[in-house]
Amino acid sequence: MILVIARRELAAVFQTPLAWMLLAATQLLLAWVFLEVIDQYQGIAAPELEIGFNAALAERLYGATLMLLLLIAPLLAARSLGQDRQLGTDQLLGSAPVRISAILLGKLIALLAPLWLLALLPLLLVAWLVGASPVDLGLFLAATLGLCLSALLFASVGLLTASLVRQPTLAAILAYVLLIMLSLIHDADQLAALQLSLLDWLSWSQHLVWLFNGVARLSDLSYFVLMSALFLALAQRQLANRQLG
Amino acid sequence: MSMLLTVDQITRRFGRKPVLHGLRFYLRRGEVLGLLGPNGAGKTTALRILSGTLAPSSGRVLLSGIDMQRSPRQAKARLGYLPERAPLYPDMRVDEYLAFAGRLRRMPTGELTEAMARVKAQCGLTHVGQRLLGRLSKGYQQRAGIAQALIHQPDLVILDEPADGLDPVQIRELRGLIRSIAENAGVILSSHALHEVQASCSRVIILHQGRQLHEADLRLQAAAARDVQVRLRPPPVLSSVLALPPVETAEPCGKDALRIRLRKEASADALARSLMEHGYGLLELRPCRTDLEQVFFSCIGMESAA
Q: Structure pTM?
């Protein structure tokens, strides 16, 4: 049943120009960042280049993609649930013998398809350099995994906020606030002058930084999966509560 | 005969505001039940509860003995629901949409093609299978909405204001469709239009401000729909009017006036012709308000509007 819903949602995303325009615009932007980094490092000797160039490319290229994902994922998630309410198709799904969790997972799969395609774009650009320059493939694969996991988290938060409020724009704004707070939460320990490792653990940017540095730790991967599952479970609860009123 | 649907003391509140108070009724297979009430009477809330898209604050709904709250998926597999606004994806073609609706109801792929052909023929959608839903007229969109509710041959079909936005020809076709659905299933429809309920339903429940005020068997009232009131000059002689071919019964009602029940096959214009042929001048001829109409207005506290 999850796949039935995912197929319908995927058709809605890819049959309209929306996803294609997003991918094209992202590719254009990333190509510009990519060329800018290459420009800076032209003519530098290979040993020096290996350290500085790979790190700069990872930081700038993947950083830009992350910002785009942060911007797009909540919008797409809010649109996905909001459109059902707007069209009245939530009544079709609600009266069918389908679990709310299946509806949410179907929508999540359909959201992840364009977002993960978008997360792969920097890797495609980096692939152009293989053979021509010393590329740290491990670093870029870990960073790509980081982008994919971030997309999962952002989409889950977007689905949660879309289940909380009816207006898609408001839902997207709420998701941005929640994600930015969740990113900056580790700064709270500095304010309190205490070592609160829990706040560090809660911050997604603290986990992502490891992946962007080429280190794929199980604890970081677990963080993204667990937090996404938590937000999806809350969204499921919220949608079920809406039926109870 | 065992009950297809049992609605037991359903109550619903939104916050502190009660919108449905103790709704209680049953439905058998083959029956068409109408929920009649003015806008805001609680009809849509009641139908949403019956379709499982809204939970009741108290009470329970049993569909073929299955509790909607306890086993929602088993119960929902046996119902088809057309909400107030047809739940359509404008970017989907009619065939794609019906296939999606069938898959949502867990229909095996092998049965889908046949089921789609059946509902398209039933709802007059055969020649628009490849058209986008968003490009269809309101009437065809409503048909597609009804078709999705029928694709899995449910035991219970719930239609919320199905005639809304349809032209008279489409409304007539809809009545025929409802009759054909009721051959194998139970149907519940809501409407704020008296004539619609009278034309399609075998039983009616009148709702007002969330309360169930009246329940009636419309088959018993069908005869009353053939009543007309006439005022004649010279003053009518009852025996001579009773002898006219279109007249089944007649009784005086006020000065120079008679209440006449027409024979089943007779029409008001045949009566008018017949009266004039027998030397009566026709001062007035109007349909009598049926009992249902009287009950409806009396239920909603508008007797004076008669």
A: 0.79
